[in-house]
Design brief:
Distance between the termini: 28 Å
CATH class of the largest domain: Mainly Alpha
Helix content: over 70%
CATH topology of the largest domain: Growth Hormone, Chain: A
Number of strands: 0
CATH architecture of the largest domain: Up-down Bundle
Radius of gyration: 21 Å
Shape: globular
Structural class: mainly alpha
CATH superfamily of the largest domain: MFS general substrate transporter like domains
Length: 441
């Protein structure tokens, strides 16, 4: 093998977990299909509201209706994931989301669709997603060995990115023509994802059917919050990501930014650019398994995210803006991967669902607040809002890094929580307590 071939092989995306672990492969396929369809509905909802009201305020109210379920149900969903079979929770949540989309489809076929139904069902759909996501995220470490979690996390992120790009682009085209068709595609995607999810192996608790004392209550949610508060490395992952998204997320301004660049027809490219950058970063991600200073990697990636977003706002033409948006997406992919590695390699399984609920808040609330920040600061100009957001991100992440030396110094080779989780998984495997998904044959 020549030198460049060896180098390319060393940096290429490691697809090994997909080949070797059946349940991880099925989980990835099912989640990707479900996400692909969800983007059709995500785009169809604001388009339909615009058609019904021609009001930006009415479209913005969707986020208001979705905010409370994300917070309340996300935390409760984490406790549910630690109390029940996570596969069953995922299946029930998927069925609930399917029911919501069926209601949206039926409403869209009425001679006069009801606006209140769209708001109500949007809240229901995000509730189902918030209930499902902690269980879905907590599955990953149970389906692959500890050492392969970095590669599996990158594969997971790549699959999500592909679903994002395909769903956004195709969903935008179909929803612009007929929202009912877009809702129908989402319904079909749910049918496929459910059939695949049904083939997953059940996931009973590691230490018996149920860990004594774990209940889907506010008390168990509080236990998860207290655990997270006592882990400075975990706090660093939440804080850095929330700061980065809150200060530098500019998606709400893309329609105005496209108009300012003189290419209003190219708005779809602006929306897709960061996902494209993330996919390109993931395609050459073989190096992630050789990185052990995960906290420092997250900090550097967040700084690159902010700097790239800020520079994108200053670019004079679409081409250069897309380049920097893609760079921001690549940085976000790297940050997300290493955040996931820290979570999956160090959090005890009996707490993983509740911590996944907290993680859901950290990566859901940030973009919501970030878009609000961008909208308010745009009174000083669209470019000013985007560029200043990038600067605020660099300053905020730098301050967080300085305040969290333990997070900065995190090293998976020496971390006590990594060692404890390795020992726990080894003990569970030797006693047969953990169900094995096993390599596929």
């Amino acid at each position: 093998m020549s030198g460049w071939q060896a180098w390319l092989r060393s940096v290429a995306l490691d697809l090994g977990p997909l080949r070797r672990y059946r349940d991880f492969r099925l989980r990835t396929i099912a989640a990707s299909v479900s996400t692909f369809g969800a983007y059709f509905t995500m785009i169809a909802v604001p388009i339909q509201i615009k058609e019904l009201t021609d009001s930006t305020v009415a479209v913005g109210l969707v986020g208001v209706f979705e905010f409370v379920p994300i917070v309340a149900v996300g935390l409760l969903g984490g406790a549910v994931a630690d109390r029940f079979d996570r596969r069953r929770v995922v299946l029930i949540s998927e069925l609930a989301a399917l029911a919501c989309t069926l209601v949206l489809l039926a409403n869209s076929l009425l001679p006069e669709p009801r606006l209140w139904v769209i708001y109500l069902v949007a809240a229901g759909a995000v509730s189902a997603s918030s209930m499902q996501r902690p269980s879905l995220d907590a599955m990953l470490p149970r389906y692959v060995p500890h050492a392969e979690i970095p590669s599996a996390s990158m594969v997971n992120n790549q699959a999500w990115g592909l679903a994002n790009i395909a769903g956004t682009m195709l969903g935008g085209v179909l929803a612009s023509v007929n929202v009912s068709v877009a809702y129908t595609v989402d319904v079909a995607s749910f049918v496929v994802s459910l059939l695949v999810f049904l083939r997953l192996s059940p996931l009973p608790r590691v230490f018996g059917a149920v860990v004594p004392g774990v209940r889907a209550t506010l008390g168990s949610v509080g236990e998860g919050i207290r655990y997270a508060a006592g882990r400075k490395d975990l706090l660093g992952t939440y804080l850095v990501d929330t700061i980065a998204m809150t200060t530098a997320m500019p998606v709400a301004l893309f329609p105005f930014f496209a108009a300012e660049l003189g290419v209003p027809h190219a708005i779809g490219l602006l929306y897709a650019a960061d996902s494209v950058g993330g996919l390109l970063a993931g395609a050459f991600s073989g190096w992630v398994r050789r990185v052990h200073r995960h906290g420092l990697a997250i900090i550097v990636a967040a700084l690159c995210w902010g700097a790239s977003m800020g520079l994108a706002g200053l670019m004079p033409n679409l081409g250069l803006a897309l380049v920097f948006l893609a760079c921001a997406g690549a940085a976000d992919m790297v940050s997300g991967t290493f955040r996931g590695v820290i979570w999956d390699q160090t959090i005890p399984d009996e707490l993983r669902g509740r911590l996944a609920g907290i993680e859901l808040l950290s990566y859901s609330i940030g973009p919501t607040l970030g878009n609000a920040r961008a909208g308010f600061m745009a009174v000083g100009g669209v470019r000013f809002a985007i560029a200043s957001g990038g600067l605020l991100c660099v300053l905020g992440v730098s301050a967080a890094a300085a305040a969290l030396p333990r997070f900065r110094a995190y090293d998976s080779r020496t971390d006590e929580f990594v060692r404890a989780e390795k020992e726990r998984r080894s003990a569970s495997s030797s006693t047969g307590a953990t169900p094995s998904s096993g390599p596929s044959t």
